[in-house]
Specification:
The chain has 555 residues and is mainly beta. The protein contains seven helices and 35 strands. It has a nine-stranded antiparallel β-sheet, covered by helices on one side. A five-stranded antiparallel β-sheet has the order 9-35-11-32-33, covered by helices on one side. A hairpin with a 7-residue loop joins strand 16 and strand 17 (303-304).
Length: 555
């Protein structure tokens, strides 16, 4: 348990920016936590540069706190308020599609944007057309299109009248802060400010445990603070993507790969990157894809197992074989599949999703104890159930006889089609896109589903291009795990575009890095206290899972 009288060691670093490759953390063998017990004063790691974020000449301050030997938290503030930023009214542009029900978009063609701007100007609202060019990434970016904006206001409230006049002309609009733009060239010239938190875990020295938690069950959500407190963690950070809307599945359910203590609890989205945690506080980033099957010994053929611990027919973020409208990853989209078989474990929750179809109950030995012709049951301790819908319902029912055995194979396969070896202490947390690979930027939003076809780049504009709160995880060349939160959606902290997130990861020394769930989910907790500034107006967001740093026996 955490000692309430534990006093954390602090050191403040003020770094004048220089144009050098940079890893601010102490080199291997020189960690401040290595030879100093928590509570004692220690020299701070010497910085050798600064974050690759914004204009190079900005001030940057760091405060390092030792939580345990081999575990530190570094608070980074960079930049100063930029008087060039303002609030402005952004206009939702009508689609150029002939479909009258096509949704509006943040971006459009130059001709369409100019037409809207001209209509607004004629109605007395002086509007401007802006060309949006995004930094080129490994598989996306470049020319995104054109947006329409009006006005420049010192506060958000000051833009309300302009928004009302825009709406009176028949266009939707909202007030946004120009400091949140991620336009090509904006990062190099921005003055900030930014606020980041960095947890550094050295597996050679840390005697606690780097692990993950989803709480009492998968289908419910808890805040990162709640998950941290329940485990008595020294620190915690929000984890992977998850289902929020009941219409998209079970809220809290991982929307991507998940393994807890060696047990697979959710299938991947396509081959998106995942954080793999080993039993010795080591971690790696691996692209994992899925193979699952159900067979009856002595019978020919096998049935495909489509997933684990999710509502059959609903696939959040898509990425599965036969999904509609796409079998490719498609972020924040719920695909459907009429014919599916899904495995359920006791970790899912008190009962499995109810509905039409077939549910087969299996005991710990894989023996069929019941074949139900509707869905919704309790999973027996140590056992499993299989739910099937559509055409697969009758097929599964015909394969399963009470007293017979079914064999379930579920594997997370790496890029070499080899099954991920899992054991006690192995955890997997989903995320994406990839940010850094083998020491180089390799940002892959298209491959990982953040490029939506036929939406005029609007999803990409809001999710990838613009600055948002971000959570990042990766490893440095010394094998340490770094977990980063960057506050955003605030004038006092701009957030990061995905390109900036990759730049930050690399300038922190990460040789491999990926994006975790961000936005309102981005949260870091230390000793029961939230140490960053979550962006949701309602406060800390309940999430699907969290990364935890548990104390060792003497911490």
């Amino acid at each position: 348990m955490i000692n309430p009288n534990h006093r954390h060691r602090r050191a403040v670093i003020t770094a004048l920016a220089v144009s050098l490759p940079f890893a601010f953390l102490a080199p291997a063998g020189a960690s401040t936590a290595a030879n100093t017990a928590p509570g004692q004063q220690a020299a701070a790691p010497l910085p050798s540069g600064h974050l690759n974020l914004g204009a190079a000449d900005q001030p940057e301050t760091r405060t390092v706190t030792s939580l345990a030997p081999g575990l530190t938290r570094t608070a980074i503030t960079r930049g100063t308020p930029n008087t060039d930023f303002s609030w402005t009214a952004e206009v939702a542009l009508p689609s150029t599609s002939p479909d009258p029900d096509a949704p509006t978009s943040a971006l459009s063609t130059q001709a369409q944007a100019q037409m809207v701007a001209d209509k607004l100007t004629a109605a007395g609202v002086t509007a401007r057309v802006e060309h949006v060019q995004s930094p080129q990434l490994a598989d996306a970016g470049g020319d995104l299109g054109y947006r329409v904006r009006a006005g420049a206001f010192p506060t958000k409230a000051d833009g309300a009248d302009t928004v009302a006049r825009i709406k009176a002309t028949g266009f939707a609009s909202s007030v946004i802060y120009t400091g949140w733009d991620g336009d090509e060239g904006s990062s190099e010239n921005s003055r900030g400010p930014w606020n980041l938190q960095v947890l550094t875990v050295d597996p050679k020295e840390y005697r606690g445990q780097l692990t993950s938690s989803f709480g009492p069950n998968l289908e419910d959500r808890e805040t990162t603070s709640q998950l941290s407190a329940a485990a008595g963690a020294l620190a915690a950070v929000n984890g992977g993507f998850f289902t929020m809307d009941p219409k998209a599945g079970a809220p809290g359910d991982p929307a991507g790969a998940a393994v807890r203590d060696g047990k697979i609890l959710s299938e991947p989205v396509g081959d998106r990157p995942s954080l793999v945690i080993g039993g010795k506080n080591e971690s790696s980033i691996e692209r994992l894809h899925w193979h699952g099957s159900v067979t009856a010994p002595g019978q020919a053929g096998e049935l495909p197992l489509d997933g684990i611990d999710r509502v059959p027919g609903l696939i959040r973020n898509c990425g599965g074989s036969g999904d509609n409208p796409t079998s490719l990853p498609m972020h924040d989209t719920t695909c459907t599949h009429a014919d599916e078989i899904v495995e359920f474990t006791p970790e899912f929750g008190p009962s499995t999703p109810a509905g039409t179809g077939t549910e087969v109950i299996l005991d710990a030995q894989g023996r069929v104890t019941a074949v139900n012709h509707s869905r919704g049951a309790s999973v027996p301790a140590g056992g499993k159930t299989l739910q099937a819908i559509g055409a697969d319902a009758d097929t599964l029912a015909s394969l399963a006889d009470v007293g017979s055995h079914l064999k379930i194979d579920a594997d997370l396969l790496n890029s070499n089609d080899k099954a991920l070896k899992t054991g006690a202490g192995t955890d997997v947390v989903n995320g994406g896109p990839m940010l850094v690979e083998n020491g180089a930027l390799n940002v892959t939003p298209k491959r990982d589903g953040m490029v939506h076809p036929n939406d005029s780049n609007s999803f990409y504009y809001g999710w990838v291009h613009k600055r948002n709160p971000r959570t990042i995880v990766g490893q440095d060349a010394q094998g340490r795990t770094l977990i980063v939160t960057a506050d955003g959606r605030q004038t006092a902290s701009l957030g990061l575009s995905i390109k900036e997130a990759a730049d930050v990861a690399r300038s922190l020394g990460m040789v491999n890095a990926m994006n975790l769930d961000g936005g309102g989910s981005t949260t870091m907790v230390q000793g029961g206290t939230v140490v960053n500034s979550p962006s949701d107006a309602t406060g800390e967001r309940p999430v699907g899972d969290a990364l935890l740093l548990l104390p060792g026996k003497k911490d």
